[in-house]
Amino acid sequence: MIYTLTYNPSIDYLVTVDSLEIGKLNRMRKASYLYGGKGVNVSQVLKELGIDNTAIGFVAGFTGREIEEGLQRQGIHTDFVHLPEGHSRINIKFHGIEETEVNAPGPFVDAVSMRALKDRIEQIGIDDILILAGAATSNMESDTFATFISELPYRDTKVILDTNGEALVNALCYHPFLIKPNMEELSDLFHEEFYPSNTTGIVDAAKRLQDKGARNVLISMGEDGAILVTEDGHVYSRPAPAGIVVNTVGSGDSMVAGFLAGYLQNRNMEDALCLGVCAGSASAFNEGFARGDEIMQLYRLAR
């Protein structure tokens, strides 16, 4: 089984406006909502690609119940810990103007609930895959993801880690199977600017992350595609398919889902990269997450 762990899931309210004027009444042209949080995003795209998975993490209140029930309606298994107080967050994403996000803080996670989540992690098997996704939040210690990995009963369980900053660095010693920094996160990690045109510098940075413990490093570069540096020393790159970008929220998570789906097909890293880039692009071409057939159409054209 594949498990996606989202520390702080959300309902993402997508609002389309022609303009946004502070201090004045603004009217929406269109509105919709999605279930969000990076691991939750991965779960939804995996399901679109026909891969069963279980979403775990924390939910709270009426919004948390809606997240859980909504994912279940999509056919996604859930095993969330329900927090005793608070509500899962609602985030606002503005479209129609320059993409703007307003993200709410999450509910407080008490010690009993944290122990309950660790108990779930301790049940993950050696042949399972755990995906840890999301940035460290104000109520989350920077070593939380590292702690979750340390709770796994088997060191050979594959872990995919999509986070940044200290949360990423602190977990590298556990040798995650895959990490996926984007260009901004890579720049923050090394305190220097990286650009898609500087392939040599990007690959060198990926190898430095491998020296710290990462096995495979997938670097997403937006409209420029992605670069993959594998644990056996191969370097693959893949441009993004051409298309009209509508919404980039969740495209990196879609890339993670597509990569894993491709890897599970035949354990071929180059094919996995191709499907990952196509999944990320397909979601960027949609207001929400791409359907499985849309992803596979791009993949067939790209191969």
Tell me about this structure.
- With 303 residues, the chain is of the alpha/beta class.
- Helix content is 37%, strand content 21%.
- The chain has 10 helices and 14 strands.
- The chain has helices at 38-48, 61-73, 111-121, 144-150, 165-171, 183-190, 199-211, 251-266, 269-284, 292-302, and strands spanning 2-6, 10-16, 30-36, 53-59, 77-78, 81-82, 89-95, 100-102, 129-133, 158-162, 178-179, 216-220, 226-229, 235-238.
- The strands form 2 sheets. Strands 1, 4, 5, 6, 9, 10, 11, 12, 13 and 14 form a 10-stranded mixed β-sheet that branches. Strands 3-2-7-8 form a 4-stranded mixed β-sheet.
- Helix 2 links the parallel strand 4 (53-59) and strand 5 (77-78).
- Helix 1 crosses helix 8 (251-266).
- The longest helix has 16 residues, at 251-266.
- The model has no long low-confidence stretch (mean pLDDT 93).
Sketch the topology as an H/E string, one letter per element: EEEHEHEEEEHEHEHEHHEEEHHH
Overall geometric form: globular
Helix-and-strand structural type: alpha/beta
Largest sheet: 10 strands, mixed
Radius of gyration, whole Å: 18 Å
In helices, the fraction of residues equals 25-40%
Q: What do the pLDDT scores average to? A: 93
**Which residue ranges are poorly predicted, with pLDDT under 50 across at least 5 consecutive positions?**
none
SS element count, helices: 10
